[in-house]
Amino acid sequence: MKAVYMTDRGRIRQHNEDNGGVFKNTSGQRLAIVADGMGGHRAGDVASEMALANLKKRWEEATLIQTADEAEEWLKTAIENGNTLLYEHSKNVSECKGMGTTVVAAICTDRFVSVANIGDSRCYIFNENGFQQLTDDHSLVNELVRTGQISKEDAEHHPMKNVVLRSLGTEETVNIDIKTIIFEEEDLLLLCSDGLSNKVTEAEMIEVLQSEQSMNEKAATLIDLANNHGGEDNITLIIVEFLDSGESGDGL
């Protein structure tokens, strides 16, 4: 397995409030995380950084994950703990009042991937069955689409597209979506903030992912596309690839 993480401020924002990375536990298994912070007075980057640091520390101390149930329970417990940390911090530090962050995190083993998400940062799978979004956006626009009030086409340009209904740290308790899928040789996993998914079409993502470029080149190309399409937001992504047997892994 190999992975690449990349983030970019974009062309408009003064600060990058996204955070992310790929980390190994004591058994060498990987946890990929993308967090997109929100909140005034630069509190967004505080929220995403705190969420990332909490998950990173817990994962680096974690032992071998052997089953999907273990992976899902680890994600649930760790993210709920992170929510408490952020919520208490926002109550006690005035400049961080109301801060929050999206989180999409994936535990990647050599048999399965368990994915957890809150907010509108996404996880996709690209394999022999095609390209599929694994996560559901916890956003106002997605709820309007789901209930048939607007079309997917309308959603692309809706004025309230950035309104998130669920995030880490904004409420005392949090509802986390978690699912597990089989991860097989040559499968690709893409995690990203909405700075990528709002600007780069699925067709463009597929074209880049199936290209002969290296992992780093694919990541850079996707960020370039988002910037070329406006780059109004921070752009963060992780690509994880399950290698053929015998191929040596590199990257993160």
Q: What does this protein look like?
A:
- Residues 2-242 form the PPM-type phosphatase domain.
- Its EC number is 3.1.3.16.
- It is an enzyme of class 3 (hydrolase).
- This protein has 252 residues and is an alpha+beta fold.
- The chain has 7 helices and 10 strands.
- A hairpin with a 5-residue loop joins strand 2 (18-24) and strand 3 (30-38).
- Helix 1 packs antiparallel against helix 2 (68-92).
- The protein is globular and about 50 Å long.
CATH class: Alpha Beta
Taken in chain order, the helices and strands follow as EEEHHEEEEHHEEHHHE
By DSSP, the count of extended strands is 10
Low-confidence stretches: none
Task: State the share of residues found in helices, binned by percent.
Answer: 25-40%
What characteristic shape results from the CA principal axes?
globular
Main sheet, how many strands, which sense, barrel?
5 strands, antiparallel
Query: What value does the average pLDDT take?
Result: 93
Report strand %: 25-35%
CATH superfamily: PPM-type phosphatase domain
Q: Radius of gyration over alpha carbons?
A: 17 Å
The CATH topology comes to Phosphatase 2c, domain 1
Helical stretch count?
7
- Spatially, the strands of the biggest sheet line up as 1-10-9-6-7
Proper CATH architecture: 4-Layer Sandwich
Distance between the termini: 9 Å
What number of structural domains do the residues give?
A: 1
Secondary structure category:
alpha+beta
Protein name: Protein phosphatase
Enzyme class: hydrolase
GO molecular function: protein serine/threonine phosphatase activity
EC number: 3.1.3.16
